[in-house]
Write a structure and sequence with these properties.
By secondary structure, this protein is an alpha+beta fold. It has a single domain, classed as Aminopeptidase, CATH 3.40.630.30. It is built from four helices and nine strands. It is globular, with a radius of gyration of 15 Å. The site of coenzyme A has 21 residues, from strand 4, helix 3 and helix 4. Coenzyme A binds next to strand 4, helix 3 and helix 4.
C-alpha cells in the first residue's frame, strides 16, 4: 500500500457533514447523491464513521453503522475517496477501520450496496471480497435488487463475511 503517512483517520463529527456533502457531486462523477446522506448519520453514527484528512483537507470518508435489527451485521452506507488520492489504498484502509469497529462489537457480516451503473464501486467491492447477493434481475451478469431503498430504486447488494477472530488485518 502506498498510502501517505501524513493522512490521518478519525471518527466523523456533525461538523464534517457540510464538507462531505460539498464533495459528493465531484467525487461521484457528477451524480448528486447528497439527499441520501442527511446530517442524521453524522449526529448518531460518528463512532462508526470515519474521516481521512491530509493537512486539514478531506481526502476520504466512510459512513457506516452497526445494525440495530441484525446483531451480527454492520452496514456501509457511503464511502468515497478524493479522485487524486484513489488507487493508493485509502478506500481499503477506511473499510478496514470499519471492519475493526464491527469485529470489536462482534459483528461478522458487513453489508453495502451500490448502483448497478457504478462499475467502479462494483469492481472495488468485489476486489475487497464483497459478494453480490442474489437479486430480482440480472443486468450485464450482475444481480440487481429492485426497490431496495425506495420505490424504483435498483441496487447491487453486497455482503462480506469477516473473519470471526480479529486478526489485525481483515480483508
Ligand atoms: C470506490 C473507491 C472508494 C475506492 O477507493 P480507492 O482508495 O481508490 O481504493 P483502494 O486504492 O483502497 O483499492 C483497494 C483495492 O481495490 C482495488 N480497486 C480499486 N478500485 C477498483 C475498481 N474500480 N475495480 C477493481 N478494483 C478496484 C485496488 O486495486 C485495490 O486492490 P489491491 O488490494 O489488490 O491493492 C473510490 O474509487 C471512490 O471514491 N469512488 C467514487 C465514490 C464511490 O463510488 N463509492 C462507492 C462506495 S459508496
Amino acid at each position: 500500500m502506498n498510502l501517505s503517512h501524513s493522512i490521518t483517520i478519525r471518527n466523523a463529527l456533525p461538523s464534517d457533514h457540510k464538507t462531505v456533502l460539498s464533495v459528493i457531486p465531484e467525487w461521484w462523477g457528477g451524480r448528486d447523491l447528497r439527499s441520501s446522506l442527511p446530517k442524521l448519520f453524522f449526529l448518531h453514527f460518528g463512532n462508526s464513521s470515519f474521516i481521512a484528512e491530509k493537512n486539514g483537507i478531506l481526502c476520504g470518508f466512510l459512513v457506516g453503522f452497526l445494525s440495530q435489527d441484525h446483531p451480527e451485521e454492520g452496514y456501509i452506507h457511503f464511502a468515497g475517496v478524493r479522485p487524486g488520492f484513489r488507487n493508493q489504498g485509502l478506500g481499503k484502509t477506511l473499510y478496514r477501520h470499519f471492519y475493526t469497529h464491527c469485529l470489536t462489537h462482534s459483528r461478522t457480516i458487513v453489508r453495502s450496496c451500490t448502483a448497478p451503473e457504478n462499475r467502479l464501486s462494483i469492481g472495488f467491492h468485489r476486489r475487497m471480497g464483497f459478494v453480490p447477493e442474489p437479486g430480482d434481475i440480472m443486468e450485464d451478469g450482475i444481480p440487481v435488487t429492485l426497490g431496495y431503498l425506495r420505490e424504483n430504486d435498483r441496487k447491487v447488494v453486497f455482503k462480506k463475511m469477516l473473519a470471526e477472530k480479529y486478526d489485525n488485518a481483515p480483508e
